[in-house]
Design a protein that fits this description.
With 345 residues, this protein is α/β, with parallel strands linked by helices. It has two domains: 200 residues, Quinone Oxidoreductase, Chain A, domain 1, CATH 3.90.180.10; 135 residues, NAD(P)-binding Rossmann-like Domain (Rossmann fold). Helix 8 packs parallel to helix 9. The structure holds nicotinamide-adenine-dinucleotide and zinc ion (2 copies).
Length: 345
C-alpha cells in the first residue's frame, strides 16, 4: 500500500510503498477514505527522529476516516464496511483519566509506549490504517468522510478548548480567535454554535480573514500592531473574556495577552513556541492561562453529532494522497485555506 512517511530529518515527506498491516486481536483495520494534514506534523518533522517514540520512517496522519476492512479476533460492535473516524489520542483505556474518556491525558501512555496514530504509531496518511482498539472508532454513518475527518483534531482540539470557557461566553462577551487556519476556522464556527459571544478573528492574510467571516466571525482583522487597539475598541475598552491562540507563535501570544480582559481565559492551543510570562501585573487580574492538548472521546462523539445537525462544517481543500509533499510545503508557507484533506487513490 501507499503511505506518506517522514523518512529523514529536515527532508520533505515521501510517498512510499509498504506492506499493508493485518489486525491483531482487538484491533481494527480501516481502509482510509480521507486523512487530514495538521500543522503539528511540521513540528514533528522538525524534531530529531526518535522523539515520538518510534524511529523514522513514520507514517504520518493523525486525522483519519475510513471503512472497516478487517476485524481482529474478539472485536465486536462493528461490521465490515462501517464508516468511522478515528479518535487519535490513544491511551491505556483504564487509568483515571481514560476512565473518563480523557485519553488525551492518559497517565500511563508514556510508560506503556502508547502513541497516537501518525505521532508515533503508523498514521492514516496511507491506504490502510490499523486502529489499536474498537473504542477509538466513532461511527459517522452517511456523513461525508472528507468533510468530517478534520473534526478529529482541527475540530476536537478547539471544541475541548472552548468548552472550558463556555461560562465566559455570555451575551455581550467577546472571544478573540488568533490564527484562522485548520483549527481556528472551526474554532470560530464552534463559538458561534455554542454561544452568543461576539467573535473577533485575527490572521495575517486576506484569504484567511475571508474564511473567518464565512465561518461566522463578527469582525475579522489583520494581526498587526494595531490589532490590540481595535479589539479594545470593540470591547468598550475591557478586552476579551476569552482569547484562543491557534498559532502559538510569539507575536500571537503577545497579542493574546494584549487582548485579554480581567477574569478572562487565555488559551494557547498552537505549538509555535511562543512564551507568555505569567505573574502579578504580567497578565490581567484573574486571567486563567491554559495549554490544552486535543480532546476527550466523548467530546469527539458530541462533535460528530454537531456536524450531523449542520452546526459545524470544515472548509476543506481536497488533494490526492500522492500530493502530500506539495501539501506540506503549501501548509508550511501558509498557502492552505481551512484544512487540507488527502484522499487515497
Ligand atoms: P494552520 O497552519 O492551518 O493554521 C495556523 C494559522 O495561524 C494560519 O492561518 C496562519 O496564517 C496563522 N498565523 C500565523 N502567524 C500568525 C500571526 N502572527 N497572527 C495571526 N495568525 C497567524 O495550522 P493548524 O493545523 O490549524 O494548527 C494550528 C496550531 O495548533 C499549530 O501550532 C499546531 O501544531 C497546533 N495544534 C495543537 C494541538 C493541541 O492539541 N494543542 C492540536 C492540533 C494542532
Ligand atoms: Zn494535529
Ligand atoms: Zn490511561
Amino acid at each position: 500500500m501507499k503511505a506518506v512517511q517522514y523518512v529523514e530529518f529536515g527532508k520533505p515527506v515521501e510517498v512510499r510503498e509498504i506492506p499493508a498491516p493485518q489486525p491483531g486481536p482487538g484491533q481494527v483495520l480501516l481502509k482510509v477514505t480521507a486523512a487530514g494534514v495538521c500543522h503539528s506534523d511540521i513540528f514533528v518533522m522538525s524534531q530529531p527522529p526518535g522523539t515520538f517514540g518510534s524511529d523514522a520512517p513514520l507514517t504520518l496522519g493523525h486525522e483519519g476516516a475510513g471503512t472497516v476492512a478487517a476485524l481482529g479476533d474478539g472485536v465486536t460492535g462493528f461490521e465490515i464496511g462501517d464508516a468511522v473516524v478515528v479518535y487519535g489520542p490513544w491511551g491505556c483505556g483504564s487509568c483515571h483519566a481514560c476512565a473518563q474518556g480523557k485519553e488525551n491525558y492518559c497517565t500511563r501512555a508514556e510508560e506503556l509506549g502508547i502513541r497516537p496514530p501518525g505521532l508515533g504509531a503508523p498514521g492514516a496518511l496511507a491506504d490502510y490504517v490499523l486502529v489499536d482498539d474498537a473504542r477509538h472508532l466513532v461511527p459517522i454513518g452517511d456523513l461525508d468522510p472528507i468533510q468530517t475527518v478534520p473534526l478529529t483534531d482541527a475540530g476536537l482540539t478547539p471544541y475541548h478548548a472552548i468548552k472550558r470557557s463556555l461560562d465566559k461566553l455570555y451575551a455581550g462577551s467577546t472571544a478573540v480567535v488568533l490564527g484562522v487556519g485548520g483549527l481556528g476556522h472551526i474554532g470560530v464556527q464552534l463559538i458561534r454554535a455554542l454561544s452568543t459571544a461576539q467573535v473577533i478573528a485575527l490572521d495575517v492574510s486576506d484569504d484567511k480573514l475571508e474564511l473567518a467571516r464565512k465561518s461566522g466571525a463578527h469582525l475579522a482583522i489583520k494581526s498587526d500592531d494595531k490589532a490590540a487597539d481595535i479589539v479594545r475598541e470593540a470591547t468598550n475598552g475591557l478586552g476579551a473574556q476569552v482569547v484562543l491562540d491557534f498559532a502559538g507563535v510569539q507575536p500571537t501570544v503577545d497579542l493574546a495577552v494584549a487582548c485579554a480582559g480581567v477574569e478572562s481565559d487565555l488559551t494557547i492551543v498552537g505549538i509555535g513556541g511562543g512564551v507568555l510570562p505569567v505573574g502579578f501585573g504580567r497578565v490581567p487580574y484573574e486571567c486563567s492561562v491554559s495549554t490544552p492538548y486535543w480532546g476527550s472521546r466523548s467530546e469527539l462523539i458530541e462533535l460528530i453529532d454537531l456536524a450531523r445537525h449542520g452546526a459545524v462544517s470544515a472548509h476543506v481543500e481536497k488533494y490526492a494522497l500522492t500530493d502530500a509533499p506539495d501539501v506540506y510545503d503549501r501548509l508550511h508557507h501558509g498557502r492552505i485555506n481551512g484544512r487540507a484533506v488527502l484522499i487515497p487513490g
